[in-house]
Specification:
With 326 residues, this protein is α/β, with parallel strands linked by helices. It is built from twelve helices and twelve strands. Helix 7 links the parallel strand 6 and strand 7. The structure holds glyoxylic acid.
Length: 326
């Protein structure tokens, strides 16, 4: 029998990562381009050392219990809300993620959505394709200025911070709200102003979400928060769907409490609140935040390295539950 670690992979990853896994592990995997059911994952983890999974796989204690020899759950994502980390920690199973490598790519996506909703690019594209366009008009598809507007960043971790130079490139004023406030020196260096959440919502022309999903951030933006926002404000969400109460967002858009939204993530992916499919002031992307060839390759390699290390009994580099080694 091979002494290489045995890894179960829930979906095909970029080619470089696949080569690495095939070379360094005994790999079993889902070869189909679809999600696996919980039962299929339970089957898949039988007898393996490591589970390499995706943000679309819900890894709960039943899955962890299905293989008492499991040595790691390695997520192909920076977010890990799909994994019951407390259950893994109780079982002393390391959980890993892929931080850092997708920061710039995800901030680019947030900015792409911001520019798109401000300047109505997707809406104009749909219009042109109907062949109804009769030529340039002084009042056609007028949008909102990005330059010199105010951006409110909710969450100032790696991706939130990466939004700052992008915003400054458009001469935007940048406000932020974060669990922990920066020091005055850091604020000065980054040229950002701290606000309480309500105040940020009241002052911003664009609000972009960059917090992790957890019990505290679920429905951070709901009916009350939308009433605080400017009627011309635009919301960008590239973080996680459940941070926004999607039903309340629909109502806020219908009532003109805010002007539009650029969304990459949803509460019940891949389903959206039905009204969102029809709204012209909403840009909807299919969870593409980290979706470049280079970044997905880096994420794959990082997740594979994490998985392989833990399978071999080493401490994996990107642990989210370091307390298991205490
Ligand atoms: C993507 O959504 C990620 O968390 O990496």
């Amino acid at each position: 029998m091979s002494d290489k670690p045995r890894i179960f992979l829930t979906r095909e990853l970029p080619p470089q990562t696949m080569d690495m896994l095939r070379e360094r592990a005994v790999l079993t995997m889902n070869h189909e381009d679809r999600y696996l059911s919980k039962q299929e994952i339970i089957q898949g983890v039988q007898g393996v050392d490591g589970l390499l999974c995706l943000l679309t796989d819900s890894i709960d204690d039943d899955i962890l219990a299905a293989n008492p020899g499991l040595k790691v759950v390695a997520n192909f994502a920076v977010g890990f809300n799909n994994i019951d980390v407390a259950a893994a920690t109780a079982r002393k199973i390391p959980v890993t993620n892929t931080p850092g490598v997708l920061t710039e790519t995800t901030a680019d996506m947030a900015f792409a959505l911001l520019l798109d909703i401000a300047r109505r690019v997707a809406e104009g594209d749909r219009f042109v394709r109907t062949r109804a366009w009769q030529g340039w008009g002084p009042l056609q598809f007028l949008g909102a200025d990005v330059s010199h507007s105010t951006l409110g960043l909710i969450g100032l971790g790696r991706i939130g911070k990466a939004m700052i130079p992008r915003a400054h490139g458009f001469s935007m004023r940048v406000l932020y709200w974060n669990r922990t406030r920066l020091t005055p020196e850091e604020e000065n260096e980054l040229q950002v102003t701290y606000c309480e959440l309500d105040e940020l919502l009241q002052q911003s022309d664009f609000v972009s979400l960059h917090v992790a999903q957890n019990d505290e951030t679920r429905h951070l933006l709901g009916a009350r928060e939308f009433t605080l926002m400017k009627p011309q404000a635009l919301l960008v969400n590239t973080a996680r769907g459940p941070i926004v109460d999607e039903k309340a967002l629909v109502v806020a858009l219908q009532n003109g409490e805010i002007a539009g939204a650029g969304l990459d993530v949803y509460e019940q992916e891949p389903a959206l609140e039905p009204e969102l499919y029809e709204m012209d002031n909403v840009v909807v992307a299919p969870h593409l935040g980290s979706g470049t060839i280079g970044t997905r390759t880096k994420m794959g390699n990082m997740a594979a390295e994490n998985c392989l290390a833990a399978c071999l009994g080493q401490r994996p580099p990107n642990l989210v539950n370091p307390q298991i080694y205490d």
